[in-house]
Specification:
heterodimer, A: alpha+beta, Immunoglobulin-like, 6 strands, elongated, B: alpha+beta, Alpha-Beta Plaits, Ubiquitin-like (UB roll), 5 domains, 5-stranded antiparallel beta sheet, 4-stranded antiparallel beta sheet, 9 helices, 25% helix, 47% strand
């Protein structure tokens, strides 16, 4: 049943050319150079250090690596990270 | 860290968080709607973040659940500022009084300006303005609106066509546009116009009143030309007769012209005197001593330094003395006669005004005796012949 609904969703997304993040609850990342990162659709902070930040996603994790990382602002679904970002890593 | 004014008004604190599960605290705070911002790590077990004062008190139950400890590191914003102000009561009172003073003084009228008046005196306008409540040291909130004041002031000043009242801060500016009044005409009593001399009327033009004579009428001195009484019977009225009557008048002139005439002639010799002009004083430079001429005329010319229309008070005065000689000139009888007639005509014009015309002349008698020409000339002159005569009202008739 879940498989069917997922397939149906994928089909409608492809047919209607809808953005994937809206349909599948995927994170959307907006990055400004290496200094600002705006993440929508996260599921909370798992780990926070100055050089490493791990965020929970609906499926898997997102790892941000850099230096002088700071959470500028945080809401239930969005997080705004500042600092020198060198690497973004998706963990399944 | 840029903070909005709203955060400043609400007040915010910088807190350090130690121990416990700090990531969980962040997540729980976010889901509870407690806003934490600028979260950064200072050491592996210590975190610093900003939080508003109201959210800080809501954070307490979450701290217990996650086992974190908070410590307030800095306080910023209006609430803390007010607390500090409470400790310094006199400073606060002074600040408040200063604000009040500034407000009160700026809501006073400090100056009333009047512009545009020429015939109306400033005092009259200020008096009218005072009656309308515009005066120095008046509260601006006690005055009416500017357009109402303009209307009322215009009503109080009959000599003004338009009055504008403007408030610029603590200055009231009253602008006045005055009426242009027609010139007042002098008052006349009812009158006739009568003949000033015996004459033959050549033209009559009555502006007001009843013309009595016609063209080519012979009139005697004192005859009424334009009557000031109009209407008949019961409707008789007296008015100011006005008009122009011209007539031919005869004048007899006795003229005598000497045959030798004295004439001034420049000999051509001259001498120059120079002066230096400093302010209102002059200092002679050259041409000292008395003039070597028995008779002379002086012609003065002054030159001053000027630059772009601005006269300096420095310059030179040149005084030229011109020698004169008096010559005697012998006239023939013909020349003497022409000179005499010219003088007589000039005299007629001078006596009777510019509109006088000499129509004809007749030399009645002429003789040359003792180096002089004697003539009796009869002139026919066309001139205005009117003079006024007031009408005397007979009372008790």
């Amino acid at each position: 049943m879940r498989l069917i609904s997922r397939k149906l969703r994928k089909l409608t997304a492809e047919l209607l050319e809808l953005p994937q993040d809206v349909v599948f609850d995927l994170p959307r990342l907006t990055m400004i150079g290496d200094r600002q990162l705006y993440i929508e659709n996260h599921r909370g902070v798992l780990h926070f250090e100055t050089d490493r930040l791990r965020l929970a996603l609906s499926k898997g994790e997102l790892e941000v690596i850099g230096s002088d990382l700071a959470i500028r602002a945080i809401w239930t679904e969005e997080v705004f990270i500042e600092g020198v970002i060198s690497k973004i890593h998706m963990v399944e | 860290m840029n903070t909005s004014w709203l955060q400043t008004v609400k007040g915010m604190v910088t807190v350090t968080i130690r121990g416990g599960r700090q990531e969980m605290l962040i997540n729980e705070a976010a889901s509870a709607g407690i806003r934490l911002w600028a979260i950064r790590r200072t050491s592996p077990e210590q975190m610093v973040c900003e939080i508003s004062v109201s959210d800080f008190f809501r954070l307490r139950p979450l701290l217990k659940r996650t086992g974190c400890r908070v410590h307030v590191a800095a306080r910023r914003g209006l609430p803390f500022w007010l607390v500090r102000l409470e400790r310094r009561k006199f400073f606060a009172a002074g600040l408040f009084l200063f604000m009040c003073g500034l407000y009160v003084l700026s809501s006073l009228v400090w100056r009333v300006e009047v512009a545009g008046n020429d015939k109306l005196t400033e005092d009259d306008i200020l008096a009218a303005a005072r009656a309308e409540g515009i005066y120095e040291h008046q509260w601006t909130w006690r005055m009416e609106e500017a357009d109402v004041l303009s209307k009322n002031l215009a009503r109080r000043l009959p000599g003004a066509a338009w009055v504008g009242v403007q408030r610029q801060g603590t200055t009231i500016r009253i602008e006045v546009v005055e009426n242009t009044m027609p010139e007042e005409q002098p008052l006349y009593t009812p009158r006739h116009l009568v003949a000033a001399a015996d004459a033959v009327v050549t033209a009559i033009e009555a502006e007001n009143g009843r013309p009595v004579v016609k063209r080519n009428t012979k009139v005697k001195r004192g005859d009424i030309l334009i009557s000031g009484t109009i209407g008949e019977g019961e409707h008789t009225r007296t008015v100011v007769a006005k008009g122009e009557v011209r007539g031919l008048v005869w004048k007899e002139y006795d003229i005598e012209v000497p045959l030798t005439q004295e004439v001034k002639v420049y000999t051509g010799a001259s001498r120059l005197k120079r002066h230096l002009l400093i302010g209102e004083r002059t200092l002679q430079i050259s041409g000292y001593g008395a003039a070597p001429y028995a008779q002379y005329e002086t012609v003065e010319s002054r030159s001053q330094m000027a630059w772009r229309g601005f006269r300096l008070r420095l310059g030179t005065v040149e005084e030229r003395q011109l020698e004169i000689r008096t010559d005697r000139r012998q006239l023939t009888a013909e020349e003497a006669r022409a000179v005499g007639l010219l003088q007589a005509k000039a005299d007629i014009l001078a006596q009777n005004g510019n509109e006088t015309k000499v129509v004809g002349q007749n030399i009645l008698h002429e003789k040359t005796e003792n180096g002089k020409v004697y003539m009796k000339v009869f002139f026919e002159v066309e001139q205005s012949i009117v003079t006024e005569m007031p009408i005397v009202q007979m009372q008790g008739e």
